[in-house]
TrEMBL record:
Residues 128-336 form the ATP-grasp domain. The keyword ATP-binding applies. Transmembrane segments: none annotated. It comes from the Bacteria. The lineage of its organism: Bacteria, Bacillati, Cyanobacteriota, Cyanophyceae, Nostocales. Keywords: ATP-binding, Ligase, Nucleotide-binding. InterPro entries: ATP-grasp (IPR011761), ATP_grasp_subdomain_1 (IPR013815), Dala_Dala_lig_C (IPR011095). This is D-alanine--D-alanine ligase. GO terms for molecular function: ligase activity. Belongs to the D-alanine--D-alanine ligase family. The keyword Ligase applies. It comes from Calothrix parietina FACHB-288.
Amino acid sequence: MSKLRILHLVGSAENEFYCDLSRLYAQDCLTATAERSRYDFQIAYITPDGKWRFPASLSLEDIAIAKPMTLFAAIQFITAQNIDLVLPQMFCIPGMTHYRALFDLLKIPYIGNTPDIMAIASHKARAKAIVAAAGVKVPHGQLLRPGDVPTIPPPAVVKPASSDNSLGIALVKNVTEYDAALKTAFAYADEVIVEAFIELGREVRCGIIVKDGELVGLPLEEYQVDPISKPIRNYADKLQKKDDGNLHLMAKDHTKAWIVDPKDPITQTVQEVAKQCHQALGCRHYSLFDFRIDPKGQPWFLEAGLYCSFAPKSVISCMAKAAGISLNELLITAINQTLGNKLRQSLINLSSHAEHGS
């Protein structure tokens, strides 16, 4: 079987922050999964000015010397490359929607969820409404636009309706704190969610992967929270800018996040709810959901994060590793789901050949 030609779709059409975040994860993925016997990787790097580049690597040097192209020129280049499938690595809203839709138009398959599902999941209020209709418990909430007045009594959580990494989030303990919290949240989005604060409890994430058409629940990841000192997680718990200008993944610190023992009774409960969310939203290939666990052990859906970069530090990759699923096996599983059964046996044979060095 010939090598699979995979295009890594990296960068951001929105801002430098998402460009950096995308490059960080994609670079780790390329390093960890680069097997010349199995894959031929190509890179498409998009910058906030809308230009495309096709660098040899994701080093800043290679990106700087890569020729910038218009969308039209980029499409011409891509269609001449005989790409087998695309691995989307973009975290901005246009990257998760418009750029995936482009590959639907080009009839090039891609790993991960479709643009319509990504658009729904990226809007926290819409995702909550859909999973709630399927019977999943969600915090009572209110969607606000500028000028609207919150009616949910504190304690309440205020957050942008469409922003990730806890940007703009605040816990309001008194009505006098609403104005400042809303001003901060509206700086990140045109709509803001105010929702009832769910007492701790615990806070966990659950990943689902699709294997042979079946939903498989992965081990949970739990986050450091405390009813007194840290009742909610914020941006500083997830990302930090280092002195060299690169982003550091704070959530990968084992004192801030850890894998839950699969024997913990909460695991099966959360996995079943996560599968409900996956089906309700119409996800494919994989999904990832955040839950608040109240003191009675009841999971409450917080939000969906429907992306995986297949980097060692990606949440789904870490969960899979804890389940005994290697990164390469995880990627092959996603490729199988994307390209269909016709490649299944060929990829298994190729994997076995590469691992045994024969």
